[in-house]
Amino acid sequence: MHETAYEITTLTPQQPTPNPGMLPTEIPPGVQMVTLPGGIRTLAYTPAQAPPAPPIPVAQPIPTWAKTTALLTPTIGGGIAAAGIGLSYAAPGLIAMTDALWAAIALIAAAAIGVPMLLRIGRTTACKGTTAITQNITATGMFGKANGTINHH
To answer: Cα 45 to chain center, whole Å?
Structure first.
């Protein structure tokens, strides 16, 4: 292989800088005017600078309503659980009470229907054999003794 040596030429400080009439606004992006260690100023491509680091998030305080809700959640859940346990223990008694109430309602309904029917039946059977009773009462004077007779027909 063959290596070619290239001669590097630099400007001496007495020589004018390149593009002395170039305005800073005319310099293309990524190119800057740099000063080399020998004191020579020249245009050079500079590596892209790293973007600034994202801001570090600041911890926000927890709102009061969130704390209150978090504290009440176990209490509410415990209350619901206690109510469920209480209902499970009370269920047999509640079932017995509902059965008793249904029996009482049935008794009231039967009495409302049955008593008038019994009275009607009792009146019709009692009237089959008619008995006539006559009374004759006589009394003399305002404070006199009364006498009477009863006749069955």
So the answer is: 64
pTM: 0.29
Convert the pLDDT of each residue in 107-120 to its tens digit.
999 999 988 888 88
Dist. CA 30–CA 20, nearest whole Å: 19
Per the CB < 8 A criterion, the answer to whether 129 and 138 are in contact is no
Tell me the pLDDT band of 19, cut-offs 50, 70 and 90. low
Burial class (CB in 10 A: 0-12, 13-18, 19+), 129: exposed
Q: How far apart are CA 135 and CA 153, in angstroms?
A: 12
34 phi/psi in degrees, rounded to 5: -120, 155
Contact present, 46 and 30 (Cβ < 8 Å): yes
